[in-house]
Design brief:
4-stranded antiparallel β-sheet; single chain; 2 domains; elongated; alpha/beta; about 290 residues; Aldehyde Oxidoreductase, domain 3; TIM Barrel
Length: about 290
């Protein structure tokens, strides 16, 4: 995550997370460490996975105290970075600073790093299943409130692609939009009249009749939602490259290869962000260090 994004977008969410955890004081830390003492703690991975969110992890500590420093271990001749594969037991970094800051920021920093690394790891494993196909893996807006900027970043780190970021980012006419407009054609026509010409219009379809209507209405992208493989194959034949295709709904590791083999352009999966398990990472072996 670049510094501009961190300062303009991410900082406010990180501060909210810190305020949620420390709304008055850290009683435990203040009890055992009433005054400044410099310390160091090790960041250790406890299972295999893909790292994501190191800058967010570090920013938690520097927001509490800018003097805090994170020194990453060297891997393949360079410091460890987001996107790197790590193994169980591998040390990722040293965090050095005021022991009170290390203790107070620990949980928030790890929550971000574990969550984002878990998403990157899960995404990476799904992307590998699509190797050799033209199909690209997309995330959705099924993200944790207040975490979208981080979770969608983690999807990219894992090798996936981002669908629209929010409701201002693109036109996606779902079932309820279509019902509200009075049908697929009317919904597309209304979107064409309202949205800037630079925006593509995507239509969610649930059956082949809707697919035909979406094609005839001139949709740019047609989502095939919760269709069987046979229905999707027929839908792709009907569309005949007149629109891009996206498959969504009940996408699993077990069926994604079958779906990709049909020639769909995109597969979107909410599971990337709402069901990925965390990657187990810990801060261990805190010790005091001498000032130089």
């Amino acid at each position: 995550m670049n510094p501009v994004t961190m300062q303009l977008v991410a900082d406010k969410y990180i501060k909210m997370a810190l305020e949620e955890d420390i709304n008055n004081e850290d009683v435990s830390t203040n009890a055992v460490m009433p005054a400044y003492k410099k310390g160091e703690v090790q960041l250790i991975c406890k299972e295999d996975g893909i790292l994501a969110g190191l800058a967010v992890f570090e920013r938690v500590f520097t927001l509490l105290d800018p003097a805090t420093s994170v020194t990453y271990t060297v891997k393949d001749g360079r410091p460890v970075a987001d996107g790197d594969a790590v193994k169980k037991g591998e040390m990722i970094a040293f965090v050095t600073g005021d022991i009170r800051v290390l203790l107070s920021g620990e949980r928030t920093a790890l929550n971000y790093l574990q969550r984002l690394s878990g998403i990157a790891t899960y995404t990476h494993n799904v992307v590998k299943l699509l190797e050799g196909t033209k199909t690209k893996l997309l995330d959705t807006r099924k993200t944790t409130p207040g975490m979208r900027v981080f979770e969608k970043y983690a999807v990219r780190v894992g090798g996936g692609c981002n669908h629209r970021y929010n409701l201002s980012d693109g036109v996606l006419l779902k079932d309820n939009h279509i019902d509200a407009a009075g049908g697929v054609r009317k919904a597309v026509e209304a979107a064409r009249a309202y949205a800037p010409f630079v925006r593509k219009i995507e239509v969610e379809t649930e059956d082949l009749t809707m697919v035909r209507e979406a094609v005839e209405a001139g949709a740019d992208i047609i989502m095939l939602d919760n269709m069987t493989p046979d229905m999707m194959a027929e839908a792709i034949r009907i569309i005949d490259k007149r629109a891009e295709t996206e498959c969504s709904g009940n996408i699993t590791k077990e069926n994604i290869k079958t779906i990709a083999s049909l020639g769909v352009d995109y597969v979107s999966s909410g599971a990337l962000t709402h069901s990925a398990p965390i990657l187990d990472i810990s801060l261990k072996h805190l010790r005091a260090v001498e000032e130089h």
